[in-house]
Amino acid sequence: MAPSLQLVHRDDFERRTLRALVGGAALGLLAGLAEGFDLTLNPGLAVMAAALAGARPKPSTQTLLWVGVPLLAALPYLFRAGAPVPQALSGAIAAALVLWIGPGGERLGKPSEVAAGAVATGALVPLGLYVQQVMNARFFPQEGLLGALVGFSTVALFWGVGTLASHVTVHVDAVESRGGQLEDRVGGEAKELLERTRSLYRQCRTLTLKMPSGAGRDELLGVLQKMANESFTLAESHAELETQLAAVVPQDVEAQVEQLRQRASATEDAVARRQLELAASSLGEELNRLQLLARKRSRFLAQLHAQVALLERARMSLVGVAGSEASAKGAQAAHLAQRLAALGQDNPEPIDESPGASVTRLRG
Fold it and tell me: Region (Disordered): which ranges (predicted)?
């Protein structure tokens, strides 16, 4: 199966890059003004400004980041190595700190993400410096305020783009890739079940691939993929309902219905009373629809629990098969695939109480 690339936390990357560009531009303006006083700022310092501007740490780690980035990113310059080594190391250190404790939101960066981002920024910062030198030589030979602004912004932009490596993951399995794409869309208990589903699927897939190749193993892999995909579909449908229900507060709708009914009973104009009653009836139907969606959300969550339990059962069965003789594993794989498929069919689908509801069935 061909590997697939997945971009995660895309919004965090876009915000960081834009903020880094602004930070580099601000330092570029300062560098341009400093030239009037015969002071020269190293364009490599743009990575520090980019890191400080692009970081979005939690309040508890904000001070640590603001102190750590300037101190640690300045260390490579103390060794007096030739350019662009200090700038590259400085960019890598700044990126590692930002991606670790200030990637965005309440999360902390994973070691693999931090390492990938640090290596990529360390490679791109020298390229940004080269582009800055070429642009100065061709367009801003006298440097000045505009030259400093463009040059520092260029270095900061290359630093920000380098952090993209921390947002790219490679999946060799399409099912696993789909589960990863849902992480940012699902929250609460459904997200915990989604993460559990991904973990169980990986374990089941690993155990299955250790079996002898054959039709039985292929059938078992197909059943596992179907079970995981059904769990992901349930999680996705649950997330869609959460979004719909979060947009409207049922208590507010109830209050509006009650208010309209009171006004209808108080008015003496028959036409006005009829219009108010129609409005109250329309809102009442919307309230009923919200209650229906809330019940469907609960059922999707219950079904997701059931699907996770099926995957857990599959994992335990695969552990038992793994301990048997190699000659019997092929037949056991086929038998297990048929048994899991039968269990999946026994799992009831949600009842569509309203044909007009905006929720689709998960199975035909």
Answer: 342-364
* pTM for this entry: 0.61
- Label residues 169-186 b or e (16+ Cβ within 10 Å = b): bebebebbbbbbebeebb
The helix (H) or strand (E) run that includes residue 297 is helix 270-322
In whole angstroms, what is the distance from residue 26 CA to residue 361 CA? 53
Q: In the chain, what are the domain boundaries?
A: 4-170, 174-346
Please say whether the beta carbons of 72 and 48 come within 8 A: no
* pLDDT number for residue 361: 33
Q: Collect the ranges in the chain with pLDDT lower than 50.
A: 1, 326-327, 348-364
pLDDT at residue number 357: 40
Query: In this structure, what token pair is assigned to residue 264?
Result: 């209808």
Longest dimension (CA), the chain: 90
For residue 112, how many C-alpha atoms fall within 13 Å in the half-sphere facing its CB?
A: 4
Dist CA 244 CA 289 (whole Å) = 11
Which residues contact residue 84 at a Cβ distance below 8 angstroms, ignoring those fewer than 6 apart? 44, 125, 126, 129, 130
Q: What Rg value do the Cα atoms of the chain yield, rounded?
A: 29
Helix, strand, coil abundance in the chain, percent, nearest 5: 75, 5, 20
Q: How far apart are CA 243 and CA 188, in angstroms?
A: 13
What distance in Å separates the CA atoms of residue 264 and residue 274, rounded to the nearest whole number?
7
Contacts of 353 (CB under 8 A, 6+ apart): 292, 295, 296
What tens digit of pLDDT does each residue of 199-213 get?
888 888 888 888 877
CA distance 255 to 45: 58
Instruction: Give kind and range of the element (H or E) at residue 7.
Output: strand 4-7
